Amino acid sequence: MTLAIAVHLVEHDPRWAERAQSLMAMLAPLNPPLLRLYHVGSTAIPGILAKPVIDIVGVASSMAALDAAEGRVRALGLGWHGEFGVDGRRFCTLDAPIAGGKDGEVERIANFHFYAAGSRHIKLQVAFRDYLRAHADVAADYAAEKRRIRALHPNDSVAYSAEKGPFIRAVLDKALAWHPADEL
Predict the structure, then answer these.
(1) Residues 103-125: tens digit of each pLDDT
(2) Domain 16-178 maps to which CATH number in 2.60.120.330, 3.30.460.10, 3.40.50.10810, 3.40.50.170?
(3) Closest CA to 108 of 79, 70, 67
(4) Domain map of the chain by residue range?
(5) The pairing of beta strand 54-60 with beta strand 106-116
(6) Which residues does 64 contact at the CB level (< 8 Å), separation at least 6?
(7) pLDDT digits over 14-37, tens only?
(8) Taking a C-beta distance cutoff of 8 angstroms, is the pair 39, 24 a contact?
(9) Under a CB-based contact definition with an 8 Å cutoff, are residues 33 and 66 in contact?
(10) CB-based burial of residue 47 (10 Å sphere; 0-12 exposed, 13-18 middle, 19+ buried)?
(11) What's the predicted TM-score (pTM) here?
C-alpha cells in the first residue's frame, strides 16, 4: 500500500494555525504518553506555499508507551503507518472523505510525526520551521523549489517529499547552528 497522493500546493492560509490547534486538541486523550506538540512544516510558516496538509510533531514519553497507545491513536481516526522510512518515528495520517467525491475518495488532512522525547528529529523539524519563519528570503527560495519539484512529481507526494531532501538538508545545517539550544 502506498501513501502517495497528488501534490496540491496552495498559497498560505492563515487558518492553518487554527486548524493545527484543533488537531492538537484532538490528541488530548493521548496525554500521556504525548508530552508536547508542535505545528511544523510549510503550513506553520506564514506566507509560504504549501500542500494544505497540517504537519504535527508529537513528543512521547517513550516509543514503547506510544506503541502501547496505538489502539487509542487509531480510535481517534488516525491511520498508523509505523516508522514509514524514519527510524524512531511513528507516522500517522488523518484523511477525510472528499465532499462530492466518489465513494471512498479521501483527502489528506494531517500528518502526525511522533517521536520519543530527546529524538533529534524533533529539533530538526522545529529548527527548520523557526529558521524559515525568521528568514523570508530562504522561505521564498523553498517555495520556488517546491514549485519546481511539483512540476516533476505532480501525482506522487512521496517522490515530491524525497526530492525536497537536498534543499532541506542544506538549510538544516544553518538552522541548527542558528536555533537556540533549548530543550525540545
Answers:
(1) 878 888 999 999 999 999 999 99
(2) 3.30.460.10
(3) 79
(4) 16-178
(5) parallel
(6) none
(7) 999 999 999 999 999 999 999 999
(8) yes
(9) yes
(10) middle
(11) 0.90
